[in-house]
Inverse folding.
């Protein structure tokens, strides 16, 4: 996301983008936003670590007349200028339908690795997935919070495999956690476990290559929204034009059949 914002902002000579990284710390992210408010920035882009803790400080910025672009993860309420992100409930639903039709059409036992519990994508991707598998014989026997991190997911997956050696597949809410689950499965000798992720970043270490290489069964593209965020900022600050309250980005399923084509296409946008 940062790279896409940098790249897009280079094409707008009026823009100077300052980045801060809270490293998954809510209080650090709050102080970062307070710092930007003090600096009187012309616009704030934020991907909130968790919704509830960041809502108040985002509202403060918005109420001071600073346009706020919320990316990927939401805040509570509507005190922001525009939200840009994919429909996480729909992505979860698509993943569930894929499990129902292609991964375990006869039903079976699976585990779920969630993202950080207080983040909106984690809840939405779980709700959507449950909608997608509804009416099937698929049973989620355990769920763990992998905090969006590969190393955390690997540890949690190792424990779930010990508790549920009979599972046949893993629904991971992002690709790094799916890779962690893959490493745990390999270490446990479960080489036939079917693992799917979400993100599908078109980079060498991303999920599309993991699908192409056979580590993941599938992934679902979650666009970063970086270019769209800069376009919205340009509309607001340079062109003085309004932007929609919500901008929903598209997704697509990536399997071995289309991984090479999708990777090349997304790299040449």
């Amino acid at each position: 996301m940062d790279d896409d914002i940098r790249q897009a902002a280079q094409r707008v000579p009026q823009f100077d983008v300052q980045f801060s990284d809270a490293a998954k710390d809510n209080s650090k992210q709050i102080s970062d936003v307070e710092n930007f408010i003090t600096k009187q920035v012309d616009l704030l882009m934020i991907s909130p670590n968790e919704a509830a803790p960041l809502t108040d400080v985002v509202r403060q910025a918005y109420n001071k007349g600073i346009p706020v672009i919320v990316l990927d993860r939401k805040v509570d309420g509507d005190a922001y200028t525009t939200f840009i992100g994919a429909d996480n409930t729909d992505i979860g639903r698509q993943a569930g339908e894929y499990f129902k039709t292609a991964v375990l059409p006869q039903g079976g036992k699976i585990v779920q690795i969630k993202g950080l519990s207080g983040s909106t994508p984690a809840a939405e991707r779980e709700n959507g997935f449950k909608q997608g598998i509804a009416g099937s014989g698929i049973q989620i026997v355990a769920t763990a919070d992998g905090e969006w991190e590969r190393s955390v997911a690997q540890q949690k997956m190792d424990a779930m495999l010990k508790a549920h050696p009979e599972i046949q597949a893993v629904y991971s809410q992002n690709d790094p956690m799916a890779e962690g689950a893959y490493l745990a499965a390999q270490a446990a000798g479960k080489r036939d476990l079917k693992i799917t992720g979400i993100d599908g970043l078109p980079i060498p270490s991303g999920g599309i290559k993991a699908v192409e290489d056979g580590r993941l069964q599938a992934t679902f593209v979650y666009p970063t929204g970086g270019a769209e965020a800069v376009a919205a900022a340009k509309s607001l600050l340079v062109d003085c034009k309004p932007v929609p309250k919500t901008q929903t980005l598209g997704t697509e399923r990536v399997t071995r059949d289309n991984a090479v084509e999708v990777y090349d296409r997304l790299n040449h946008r």
